[in-house]
Design goal:
The protein contains 8 helices and no strands. The protein has 197 residues and is an all-alpha fold. The longest helix has 27 residues.
Length: 197
């Protein structure tokens, strides 16, 4: 918060203006006891958003990339944020969209190569395969966060046999639910999901 006017009638700059250049947090000045600089605000925001994204099932590497994109977009914003909570909410939305975009990209890339030319396979089979893949990707997006985590999780090397068995059962149930959502037989869907790991 800006201090009282000096003898010339001008107010000294807010702690934010004295600390850093980006105008992203400029509206925080109205809050009492607020850390107003980008350098002070961003670590607080990222820790909260990182926890939210982890709880939603996003992998750490994807979270890091999503937070970098959100930081860049936040710094390019023409208007500031009203509060830390507002900044957290905005960054969460941007980062979550980036995570979902990465999941869709990985699903398209990792589910296997599809023959592009009619010489390699029957064009009707290519179209059917693409439709099946799109159905599986749509089904993945409909699964709960817990189910997506179960499908894509890899047991830690230090996990005991009981934990590995629990993970295997959760993966089986999630794949079964995915097969039902996709309307495909269980074997085909399981193969598609296994290819995506």
């Amino acid at each position: 918060m800006a201090g009282p006017a000096d003898s010339s009638g001008r107010r000294p700059p807010s702690p934010y203006r004295g600390a850093s250049g980006p105008a992203v947090t400029r509206k925080f000045a109205g809050e009492a006891d607020s850390c107003l600089s980008w350098d002070a605000s961003w670590p607080v925001v990222t820790s909260k958003v990182r926890r939210i994204l982890r709880n939603r099932g996003a992998p750490t590497t994807t979270i890091d990339d999503a937070l970098q994109t959100a930081a860049l977009r936040a710094l390019c914003r023409s208007e500031g944020f009203d509060s830390h909570e507002g900044m957290v909410a905005w960054v969460t939305v941007v980062a979550w969209h980036e995570v979902q975009k990465e999941w869709r990209r990985q699903a398209r890339v990792e589910l296997g190569s599809i023959a592009e030319s009619p010489d390699e396979s029957d064009p009707a089979a290519v179209v059917e395969r693409r439709l099946e893949l799109e159905t599986v990707v749509d089904g993945l997006m409909e699964l709960s966060i817990t189910e997506r985590q179960a499908i894509f999780s890899i047991p830690e090397p230090t996990a005991d046999a009981a934990e590995r068995a629990r993970m295997k059962m959760r993966r089986y149930r999630a794949r079964k639910h995915l097969a039902a959502l996709a309307g495909l037989n269980g074997a085909a869907t399981t193969r598609e999901v296994a290819d995506s790991r």
